[in-house]
Design brief:
2 copies of one chain form a homodimer. With 319 residues, the first copy, chain A, is of the alpha+beta class. The first copy, chain A, has 3 domains: 57 residues, Winged helix-like DNA-binding domain superfamily/Winged helix DNA-binding domain (Arc Repressor Mutant, subunit A, Orthogonal Bundle), CATH 1.10.10.10; 204 residues, Bira Bifunctional Protein, Domain 2 (BirA Bifunctional Protein, domain 2); 43 residues, SH3 type barrels (Roll). Helices cover 32% and strands 27% of the residues of chain A. Chain A contains 9 helices and 14 strands. In chain A, the strands form 3 sheets. In chain A, strands 3-4-5-9-8-7-6 form a 7-stranded mixed beta sheet, sandwiched between helices. Chain A has a 5-stranded antiparallel beta sheet with strand order 13-12-11-10-14, with no helix packed on it. The first copy, chain A, has a two-stranded antiparallel sheet with strand order 1-2. In chain A, strand 1 and strand 2 form a beta hairpin. In chain A, helix 2 packs across helix 3, helix 6 packs across helix 8 and helix 6 packs across helix 9. Strand 8 of chain A pairs antiparallel with strand 8 of chain B.
Chain lengths: 319, 319
């Protein structure tokens, strides 16, 4: 019911009389007043003026599903959303939902994570209301080998969305790090659940530092706000744009394969054309990063001239 | 307590006086009598003779963890077992346990499955007390790409165990079917849970027709009993041997890689050296199956002379 009231207020941009709202939703004036109080308690700035009615002045800085869904206009992604104030990790909840047949496109959003996950059991700092932390369930009809290309797809989508919303250019360090001017601003995590010849589902995790100021950032990290002349961003708008961008790229990927995503990825790549070291467990491999292949693997030309396919490890840029 | 009583009876091969057992386990004669009744109800054939005591004549044809664990002598595999009379699918329970950090080597055994799983959502018929149906959780330190080699590893282990227990020769059809004289006797299913560059865990599912007579077998299927001159097999003994064989091969794989497993696999392979078709979704590929590679992929030489790496699909033997 509160979502319906919000919907009416959002659409009008004007004062709407309590009588009209009550009549439209078939509730009493008293019930309406109670709902308005609850919305105010949730952070909605709603003014009430006698003889004019109610007006929505501002929505709170929260990634409420009703806010994210409003004018989202996607087909699948975000049709189902789970929202949490604080969570261990959105990945774990999404993984569980994936096991329970949650539909493709399901989002798990949390305002904070106490055990935010990075690659290889590393931690991802997720301070409350500062960033965007969500996991997305996809059920692509691909082989497990091709799953890494989804990491690239989401990375490109985030770059495109951020560019559109605030004009800031993000660069991608293979496989999953998002950088602005050599400082880390976000990352993509991909978890796979598969038979040997069929993906059952993947969980894509996306974490972005959005409105963090320098006090909530570790060394080497940055936020979009810091890179946007300290102007805070509307997190709802950015999340919507990311979701739209992922959906567009994902539909294209299903229809035409990875070509378009790879072309875009190359343009944002921080890693290509550089001399790099790849560290994996105790091994390392050195050479020039020449390209990515259709499954998202990095192609590395060693000094002996051999091209090696790299699917795992940490990349260190040399020099 | 019942396991402890069984243990005493098993070890003695003789009558053991109730007084001795009670004293040893520090329980009353009355309590002992009650436990013995419960064991009889579970199918244990225990005779009680005045002045002599109790003697275990026979154990029931059940895959009880206490039976499987008795003289199993493995280091990890089977240290933790879950046993069910009937289950939807051992895969689903093992998957859930894997998510909950169940240790490597955990077994989920069921006497029957109502929704036994084959590859690609196919069904695996699992009539009660006839076969061996279990899932095994492994946590190998390998890349997701290498997981298919575990399918081959388990297939080879089953071949070795069956050969040892009843002398019957099993052949393997890539990737996961077990055949005797061109009839299907079992299969291996591998489910993967991974990040892009680290396997979190795999669930290996093994289903074998053991004591099925022709009435409980579909066309094209056979059982070990049918191929063993209709002599029924001791399922506990066979399961123990399979578990031991998997552990030995898995330890070797971790230490020295897949070489030994692949060598054995080639000897049992029904597919190699033959002209085959591989069907995947609506595509198909034809040629000669020449080998498997170190990640468990099938190498197919097409008529154009190209060697293609096949990681998915159904193999049809031509001619």
């Amino acid at each position: 019911m509160q979502d319906k009231i919000l919907d009416i207020l959002r659409r009008s941009h004007q004062y709407v009389s309590g009588e009209d709202i009550s009549a439209h939703l078939n509730i009493s004036r008293q019930a309406l007043w109670k709902h308005i109080q609850n919305l105010k308690d949730s952070g909605y700035d709603i003014v009430a003026v006698p003889h004019l009615g109610y007006r929505l002045i501002a929505s709170p800085d929260r990634l409420f599903p009703s806010e994210v869904a409003y004018r989202l206009h996607t087909k699948n992604i975000g049709k189902k959303m789970y929202y949490f104030d604080t969570l261990g990790s959105t990945m774990d909840v999404a993984e569980e939902l994936g096991q329970k047949q949650a539909p493709e496109g399901t989002l798990v959003i949390s305002e904070a994570q106490t055990k935010g996950k990075g690659r290889l059991n590393r931690e991802w700092s997720s301070p409350k209301y500062k960033g965007i932390y969500f996991s997305l369930i996809l059920r692509p009809k691909i082989l497990p080998n091709s799953a890494p290309v989804l990491t690239l797809l989401c990375a490109v989508s985030v770059c495109e969305a951020v560019k559109k919303v605030c004009g800031v250019e993000i660069k991608i360090k293979w496989p999953n790090d998002l950088f602005i001017r050599h400082k880390k601003v976000g990352g993509i995590l991909t978890e796979l659940n598969a038979e040997m010849d069929a993906v059952r589902f993947v969980v894509m995790g996306i974490g972005i530092n959005v409105n963090n100021d320098t006090t909530t950032l570790v060394e080497g990290a940055t936020s979009l706000r810091e890179q946007n002349n300290k102007v805070p961003l509307n997190r709802v708008e950015l999340l919507q744009e990311i979701v739209r961008s992922i959906e567009a790229r994902y539909l294209l990927f299903q229809k035409e394969g990875a070509v378009s995503t790879l072309t875009q990825w190359r343009q944002h790549a921080l890693t290509l054309g550089r001399r790099i070291k790849v560290l994996y467990h105790k091994e390392h491999l050195e050479g020039e990063a020449v390209d990515v292949d259709g499954d998202g693997a990095l192609l590395l030309r060693t000094d002996a001239g051999l091209v090696r396919r790299v699917t795992a490890g940490d990349v260190v840029h040399c020099r």
